[in-house]
Amino acid sequence: MEVIIKPNPEEVSREAAGLFRRQLRRKPDSVLGLATGSTPVELYRKLVAMVRCGEVSFAHATCFNLDEYAGLPADHPRSYACFMREHLFSHIRVAQWFIPDGLAKDVATHCEEYEYRIRDCGGIDLQLLGIGSDGHIGFNEPGSSLASRTRIKTLTARTVADNARFFDSAEAVPRHVITMGVGTIMEARHCLVLATGESKAAAVAAMVEGPVTASVPASALQMHPVCTLVVDEAAAKLLQRTEYYRWVYDNKPSWQRP
Ligand code: PGA
């Protein structure tokens, strides 16, 4: 796993935007996996700006979102479909974009179809991920099978509390979600995890330097052949090998840079 430590959240987003630009320039019809939450908001703002000035285009790209709240319609202001339109898709042109349907009647079939569609599009080239303070990726909470596929999950009380800021109260946060599984995420060709702020420091340390365990679903990424983690100083605070991570980054050959 490559660990890139940046001084602040702004620089984390800049690095991530550079990786998206490189991906889309190399392969304009890339299949991109996208995430929601607070962390990627500034990245999306940068990508919209890049599209507007012609630096990059999503016009031939296909996007798949990681997850959606079960029970929320796509036009609900707190749905992730709405989040994505607000922060990205109402501002740029994209060839295709998919997100799990929070109102799917037959959830199991819907999840199977979502997996099929990802495969049918050739698989995900670059998967963007946040990390929960409990170590989740997507909404794969601690204890999720590391081989899991897209399915319905129950949120932990901690995630409900973490996400209450987007709702009027914790009671209003849906308890269930449809999420890509850890196994689905692991099939992406390149995983890009972003984490900022001290509240993520313990989860980041467990993900990178702890054992691979379903108790920290993000730790499965230690088994991924091409995973980049970009963190700010606050989120890197509990990492042990920071000197080495910085050394690797400073000595990175120019052809490997975005
Ligand atoms: P956040 O969420 O970006 O809002 O911190 C990350 C996550 O829960 O995966």
Task: Characterise the protein shown here.
The protein has one domain: Rossmann fold (3-Layer(aba) Sandwich). The model has no long low-confidence stretch (mean pLDDT 97). The chain has 258 residues and is of the alpha/beta class. α1 (9-26) crosses α2 (41-52). Strands 1-10-9-6-2-3-5 form a 7-stranded parallel beta sheet, sandwiched between helices. It has a 3-stranded antiparallel beta sheet with strand order 4-8-7. α7 links the parallel β9 and β10. The chain has helices at residues 9-26, 41-52, 80-89, 107-120, 157-163, 182-186, 201-209, 242-250; strands at residues 2-6, 31-34, 62-65, 67-69, 96-98, 126-129, 151-154, 176-179, 190-195, 227-232. It starts with a strand and ends in an 8-residue tail after the last helix. It binds 2-phosphoglycolic acid.
